[in-house]
Amino acid sequence: MTLTYGNASNEVIDKVTFFYMNYFDVSPLNDLAADFFFNIPAVQYVEGLTQDFPRRPSKTYLLYFKHFPKFLTGDVQGMAHAVDLLYLFDAGNLDVLKMVPYPYNANSCGPVDKALKYKYMHMLSAFVKTGNPNKGLGGDLICDWPPFDPQRRSYLQFSEFSEVKNDVNGDRVRLWRERIPMWIKQYP
Fold first, then answer.
1. Domain tally for the chain?
2. pLDDT tens across 34-57, in order?
3. 105, 68, 70, 65: which is closest to 88 by C-alpha?
4. Which residue range is the domain that position 102 belongs to?
5. How far apart are CA 123 and CA 117, in angstroms?
6. Strands of 154-158's sheet, edge to edge?
């Protein structure tokens, strides 16, 4: 699937607008942009990596960082682009401002963000070392997160109360894959 559809009629634009005005997490525009630039391509990517499943077992893990950091101030909500880097690296205040161009208050980084940072760093370092994010470098169980496969479509929704779910943003993926192409044919 490609996300390039060419010109869209006003009817198609109205239908997509209606969808996002009624189904959003952060805001209609933020969610539309996140889906177009990040979420849908990420799903396409992991599907491509697992296309030989079940013949070849999957070693691909999909993580959806769904957390609203308290240290971001102003109008920024949710996990904005590149903010996950603040959970991965120890960065001083000046480094943060270079990496993440959002209003930031270091004093608002509370125990939840610190715990998430610890867990995120350990999951990713375990994945880099072993190919499995579930067991920490000391052998401790970090989470119970199955690899992505095209049937279950499992992913880890990473937040204060992380949980394994299936079919990340499924309604939005189907919008871009099925409904928009259908509408473009229906309303040229």
1. 1
2. 999 999 999 999 999 998 877 888
3. 65
4. 10-186
5. 10
6. 63-65, 154-158, 163-166
Residues linked to residue 72 through DSSP beta bridges, in sequence order: 104
Query: Does 5 fall in a domain?
Result: no
For the CA atoms of the chain, what is the radius of gyration?
19
3 belongs to a structural domain: no
Number of H helices, E strands in the chain: 8, 3
Q: Is residue 43 included in any domain, yes or no?
A: yes
Within a domain: residue 2?
A: no
Whole-number Å distance between alpha carbons of 66 and 79: 6
Instruction: Say if strands 154-158 and 63-65 run parallel, antiparallel, or are unpaired.
Output: parallel
Q: How far apart are CA 188 and CA 5, in angstroms?
A: 11
* Mean pLDDT value of segment 117-121: 89
Instruction: Take residue 188 and report the two structure tokens written for it.
Output: 């040229």
